[in-house]
Write a structure and sequence with these properties.
Shape: globular
Number of helices: 42
Structural class: alpha/beta
CATH topology of the domain at 8-181: Alpha-Beta Plaits
CATH architecture of the domain at 8-181: 2-Layer Sandwich
Helix content: 55-70%
Radius of gyration: 35 Å
Number of strands: 17
CATH class of the domain at 8-181: Alpha Beta
Strand content: 5-15%
Distance between the termini: 35 Å
Strand order of the largest sheet: 2-3-1-4-7-9-8
C-alpha cells in the first residue's frame, strides 16, 4: 500500500524478543537473519494493504485501513517466521500488538495516543505472541478467520500507568498458544498509582532516566526542577518501564503530606508493609527488610523533609540491590547522589511558527491540545488559533502544570482570548482537578510550595532577582541585589538553584548566567513589589547596566568588539528593562546616556527599528540632560534612520547633533556626528556636501588623534570619489589606506567594510577573481560578527559578481540571501539591488513575466525612495530597463512590468524570494 491510511486506523507493532543478546552473541549471523526477517514482515504487511511507516532496528510499525487486515497480516507473519529456517541464530521470535484508534497522520508518520497505546501493549507481549486491545477485538470478533480465536486475558495495567486495558491474545492453527504471564504492572510487586491521563511526550527523558537508573554506578538518582515540571509523572513512568528489571518490584512513597523529617522512615515503611519493632529503630528494620531485596524505591517530593535524607543514605549503603529514584526541588546532598534536572517540554518558537501539521509535534502543544480536548472534545489546532497556542506554551515556559491548567481554560476561553489575559498568568491558571494536591490545583500554589522553603535572606534575594530580564551574572547579582554583602549572594544563588527557583546556563566565555522561568519571574516580581524596595532595586539595576553599556562603547570599535557585541547581545533584555524604567521614571539623563551608548551596537547587529524607538523616546524629554548626552542620542537616531532610508529625517536629526557637538567642543563626538551625517548625505545623493564633511572630518580626526575616525573618514572620502568621479584607482587607494589603519586597530567590522568596498571596486574594474577574494573574506568576518547589514551587503555584491561570471543559479542564491536580510532591516537601497539582480537572473533565463515584474518592482522603489544614491550608483539601470523592454515586449513584458510596479515592497520581496518559475 503506497498511501498511508487516515482516520480510524489499526496499528500493528512488532519487534524481536531477545534481539540485543543475539546481536552480542553473533552480530554477523544476526545481520543476515534480520534481512530475511524484514523481508517476511514487509511482505506479510503489504499483502494485506498495510503501510509500514517506521522501522527502528528490528521493530516494525505499520498502519492498516481495517482491523481484519492487520490481524490477518500478524497471523501470516507469525507463520512465516515459524516456518523459516534460522540455522545460526535459532528461531527469531517476534512479539506483536494490535490497537485501533483515531490518529493524526503527517508526512507518512502517525501521532497521538493510539500510537503510544499500541507501543505499551507491545511491551507486555512475549516472542511469538500476538496481543489485541479491546477496540481491535470489537472490530474483528465477528469475522475471524477459520480456526482463529481471541482469548480474553482480562484487564491489565500497562506500563503507561493510564487506565487498565482489556487485553486479548490471538490463537491460530500452527502458532504457539502458551506463554508466560504478560509483562504488565502485575508482573512484579508494586504500588505504582494509575494516572488519570496519558503521559504526553517525555519519551527522551523517560529513556534517559531509565538508562541512568540501570547504570551500574548509580544507586540514587534525584529528579530536580521547579514546581509544575512533571517530576513525579516522569519518575513514575520511568519506574513502570523499569519494573521488569527489579525482581522485588518498585514502590512509590509520597512524602508531600509530611513536614517532619522524623516521619521519613515510617512513611517509607508504609507502602513496603514493614512494621515497627520494639526491639530496634525503624530504620534498622527497614535495612533488614531491604538488605537482600532487588527493589526500586521512588521517593516523591523530598524537598520539605531534607533533614531526613540521611535515612536514604543509610538504606542505600546497607542494601546492595536497592536503588532509589527521588523527586525534589532541591538535591538531597547525599554521597553518591546523581542529579537529573527535568527540562520543560519541547516548545515551538512563536516568532518562526511552523506549519499547523508540524506544530502539534511539539510536546508542549500536544499537551495543551490533549487537555483542551478533555474539556472540549471538538477542539483542534487551526491556522487561526495556532499562533496563540504557540505563544501560550512559550509564555508558560513549557511547564506541564501551567499548560495543563491553561488547556482546561479552553472550556470558556479560546486560545486567542486566553493569550490576552496571560499578563497575569498566576491569576488565570487555577482551577485544576479537585483530586490533585492543593499545590497542583493552581500555578501559584506550585510556586508558593517552593517559596515557603526559603529562609528570610533567600526570600529577599529571590524578590530582588526579579529586577533582571533574560538572565543575570553573579557579578551583576552581587552589585545590584547585595551591594553591602549582607545577603551572601553567592550562597543565596546556590541555594535558589538547588531549590529550582533559578536555573544555571552558560553565557559568553562560559560565564555562568542564572535565569528564571517566566512564571517564577512573575511571582518574584510580586514579592519585590510587596517588599517596598522595588524602586531602589530598579534604579540600581539601571545604573549598573548604564555603566556596562558605557564600558562597552569604546570596545565596540576595537580589537575586542566581537566579545563586547556578544556581551551586549546577551544582556539586551536587561538593557531594555533599564531603558523602560528610566523612561517611566523620567530619568532623562540616564535614558539618553544608555540609549546613546547602545546605538552603535544596535547599528551593527541590525536592530535599526528598535534602536530608533528607544532613542526617539529618550530624546522626547524636557531637555534637562547634558548637551553631550543629547547630541550622542541624536547622532544615533539619525544614523539608524539613514539606514532605514528616511534620509530627510536622518539629515535633520544628524545636523542637530553636529550643531550640539560643535557647541560643546567635544572633538571625538563631533567626528562621529560628521561621519554619520556624511553617510546620510551620500544616501541622499548630496555628494558635494558629503565631500566637504569628509574633508572636515578627516582634518579633525588627524588633529585630535582619532585613528578610528581617520579610517572612517578615509572610507567616506573613497565612497564620495567612487560615486562622484568614478575614479577607481583613487577610490581603491583610499579604501586601501583605510584598510591599513583598520588592520592596525584590529577593527574587524572596519576591515570587513573596507574589504567589501575593495570588492566592489574590483568588480567595477572587471577583476572578478580579486573581487571574490575580497568579498568572501568580508563575508566571513560579517558572519563571525553576526553583522546583518554587512552579511546582506556582501552577499548581494557576490551575487553581482556571479552575474558577471554568468553563473545565474549561484547569483540567485547570494542575491536572495542578501535581499531577505535587507528587507528585514528596512534598507531600501539593498532591497533595490536585490530586486534588480534577481531581475537580471530571470532575464538571462528568459523568464519574461518574472523579469518584467522584478524590473517593475525595482523601478517603482527607485523612483519613490528617498535614497537617491540608487540613481548615482546604478545609472545604467534605466538603459538596462529599456533594453529588456524592447527585447521582451512582444512576450507580455508590459503587463508583467506594470504588475511589478503595483506591488508593495513587501509583496515584491516575497515574490522575489520564491524560487518559482513563471
Amino acid at each position: 500500500m503506497s498511501v498511508p491510511p487516515t482516520g480510524t486506523v489499526t496499528f500493528l507493532f512488532t519487534d524481536i524478543e531477545g534481539s540485543t543478546k543475539l546481536w552480542e552473541t553473533d552480530s554477523e549471523s544476526m545481520s543476515e537473519a534480520l534481512v530475511r526477517h524484514d523481508e517476511l514482515l514487509r511482505s506479510a504487511i503489504e499483502a494485506r494493504d498495510g503501510y509500514v511507516f517506521k522501522t527502528v532496528g528490528d521493530a516494525f510499525c505499520a498502519a492498516f485501513p481495517t482491523a481484519l487486515d492487520a490481524l490477518e497480516a500478524s497471523v501470516e507473519a507469525q507463520r512465516w517466521l515459524l516456518e523459516e529456517q534460522w540455522p545460526e541464530t535459532g528461531r527469531l521470535k517476534a512479539r506483536m500488538a494490535l490497537h485501533t484508534g483515531a490518529t493524526e497522520e503527517r508526512d507518512g508518520d502517525y501521532f497521538g495516543p493510539p500510537v503510544n497505546r499500541v507501543a505499551r501493549l507491545l511491551s507486555a507481549a512475549h516472542g511469538g505472541q500476538v496481543l489485541l486491545s479491546l477496540p481491535t477485538h470489537e472490530m474483528v470478533r465477528d469475522q475471524l478467520p477459520a480456526g482463529t480465536v481471541l482469548v480474553d486475558l482480562g484487564e491489565r495495567r500497562l506500563k503507561d500507568l493510564f487506565r487498565p486495558e482489556r487485553i486479548f491474545q490471538l490463537r491460530a492453527p500452527a502458532l504457539p498458544s502458551e506463554f508466560p504471564p504478560l509483562r504488565t504492572l502485575e508482573s512484579r510487586p508494586n504500588n505504582l498509582p494509575l494516572q488519570p491521563t496519558p503521559l504526553v511526550g517525555r519519551e527522551r527523558e523517560v529513556g534517559e532516566v531509565a538508562d541512568r537508573v540501570q547504570s551500574d554506578g548509580v544507586r540514587l538518582l534525584t529528579l530536580t526542577g521547579p514546581g509544575g515540571t512533571g517530576k513525579t509523572r516522569l519518575a513514575l513512568q520511568a519506574a513502570a518501564d523499569l519494573l521488569e528489571e527489579f525482581e522485588d518490584g518498585a514502590f512509590f512513597v509520597a512524602l508531600a503530606t509530611i513536614t517532619d523529617p522524623e516521619l521519613v522512615p515510617s512513611t517509607i515503611a508504609g507502602p513496603l508493609g514493614v512494621k515497627e519493632s520494639a526491639e530496634q529503630p525503624l530504620t534498622e528494620v527497614l535495612k533488614g527488610y531491604l538488605r537482600e531485596k532487588d527493589l526500586l524505591l521512588i521517593l516523591d517530593n523530598f524537598e520539605q523533609v531534607l533533614e531526613g535524607a540521611s535515612v536514604v543514605g543509610e538504606l542505600v549503603a546497607a542494601c546492595p540491590k536497592l536503588k532509589v529514584l527521588a523527586t525534589s526541588r532541591i538535591p538531597l546532598r547525599l554521597y553518591g547522589e546523581q542529579e537529573y534536572a527535568v527540562p520543560p517540554l519541547a516548545l515551538p518558537d512563536p516568532r518562526v511558527l511552523p506549519p499547523v501539521e508540524v506544530l502539534t509535534q511539539y510536546e508542549a502543544v500536544r499537551l495543551f491540545v490533549e487537555r483542551a480536548r478533555a474539556v472540549k472534545a471538538e477542539f483542534s489546532v487551526t491556522n487561526e488559533n495556532a499562533p496563540a497556542i504557540a505563544e501560550i506554551c512559550a509564555r508558560l515556559d513549557g511547564l506541564p502544570l501551567a499548560i495543563e491548567l491553561a488547556g482546561a481554560r479552553v472550556r470558556i476561553l479560546p486560545p486567542q482570548k486566553m493569550l490576552e489575559r496571560l499578563s497575569n498568568r498566576l491569576k488565570l491558571l487555577k482551577g485544576g482537578a479537585r483530586d490533585l494536591p492543593t499545590r497542583q490545583q493552581t500555578l501559584r500554589g506550585a510556586i508558593d510550595w517552593s517559596h515557603d522553603l526559603l529562609e528570610g535572606d533567600e526570600k529577599t534575594l529571590f524578590g530582588r532577582l526579579s529586577v533582571f530580564s533574560g538572565g543575570r551574572t553573579l557579578e551583576a547579582i552581587e552589585e545590584i541585589c547585595d551591594p553591602e554583602g549582607d545577603l551572601d549572594a553567592l550562597e543565596g544563588v546556590e541555594s535558589l538553584v538547588e531549590k529550582s527557583l533559578l536555573r544555571q546556563e552558560e553565557g559568553p566565555e562560559e560565564e555562568p548566567r542564572f535565569v528564571m522561568l517566566e512564571t517564577v519571574h512573575e511571582y518574584a516580581r510580586e514579592k519585590l513589589e510587596e517588599s517596598g524596595e522595588a524602586e531602589g532595586i530598579k534604579c540600581a539595576h539601571a545604573e549598573y547596566f548604564l555603566a556596562l553599556a558605557e564600558e562597552a562603547e569604546p570596545g565596540l570599535k576595537g580589537p575586542d568588539q566581537l566579545e563586547w557585541l556578544e556581551r551586549l547581545e546577551v544582556e539586551h533584555d536587561n538593557m531594555r528593562a533599564a531603558l523602560s524604567w528610566a523612561l517611566e521614571s523620567e530619568e532623562e539623563e540616564l535614558a539618553l546616556r544608555l540609549a546613546g551608548a547602545l546605538w552603535w551596537f544596535w547599528f551593527v547587529r541590525g536592530h535599526y527599528g528598535e534602536g530608533r524607538r528607544w532613542l526617539e523616546r529618550a530624546l522626547g524629554g524636557e531637555g534637562g540632560a547634558p548637551v553631550s548626552a543629547r547630541a550622542k542620542a541624536l547622532v544615533g537616531a539619525g544614523g539608524l534612520a539613514a539606514e532605514q532610508g528616511e534620509i530627510e529625517k536622518a539629515t535633520a536629526t544628524l545636523e542637530e547633533g553636529v550643531r550640539l557637538f560643535r557647541a560643546s567642543e567635544e572633538a571625538e563626538g563631533l567626528v562621529d556626528a560628521l561621519n554619520s551625517l556624511c553617510g546620510a548625505m551620500i544616501y541622499g545623493g548630496k555628494l558635494d556636501a558629503a565631500k566637504a564633511l569628509t574633508e572636515e572630518s578627516l582634518m579633525l580626526c588627524r588633529d585630535c588623534g582619532s585613528r578610528w575616525g581617520v579610517a572612517e573618514a578615509l572610507n567616506n572620502v573613497g565612497l564620495v570619489s567612487h560615486l562622484q568621479d568614478n575614479d577607481w584607482d583613487r577610490t581603491e587607494s583610499l579604501y586601501k589606506e583605510s584598510l591599513e589603519v583598520r588592520r592596525e586597530l584590529h577593527d574587524k567590522r572596519g576591515i570587513m567594510m573596507s574589504l567589501n568596498n575593495l570588492g566592489i571596486v574590483a568588480r567595477k574594474k572587471g577583476d572578478l577573481h580579486r573581487a571574490v577574494a575580497h568579498l568572501e573574506e568580508a563575508l566571513s568576518l560579517g558572519r563571525n560578527l553576526a553583522d546583518k547589514s554587512f552579511i546582506a551587503n556582501t552577499s548581494v555584491e557576490l551575487g553581482y559578481v556571479e552575474l558577471g561570471r554568468g553563473d545565474w543559479e549561484r547569483a540567485a542564491v547570494y542575491l536572495r540571501e542578501g535581499m531577505s536580510v535587507w528587507a528585514e532591516l528596512g534598507d531600501e537601497f539593498g532591497t533595490f539591488e536585490g530586486l534588480w539582480g534577481l531581475a537580471q537572473v530571470a532575464e538571462a533565463s528568459e523568464e519574461v513575466r518574472r523579469a518584467g515584474r522584478l524590473f517593475g518592482a525595482a523601478d517603482r522603489l527607485r523612483e519613490t525612495s528617498e535614497v537617491h544614491v540608487m540613481e548615482i550608483e546604478h545609472p545604467e539601470f534605466g538603459e538596462h530597463l529599456e533594453a529588456a523592454r524592447s527585447r521582451f515586449e512582444a512576450a507580455g513584458w508590459t503587463q508583467a512590468y506594470e504588475e511589478g510596479r503595483a506591488m508593495t515592497t513587501d509583496e515584491a520581496v516575497s515574490y522575489a524570494l520564491k524560487d518559482d518559475r513563471d
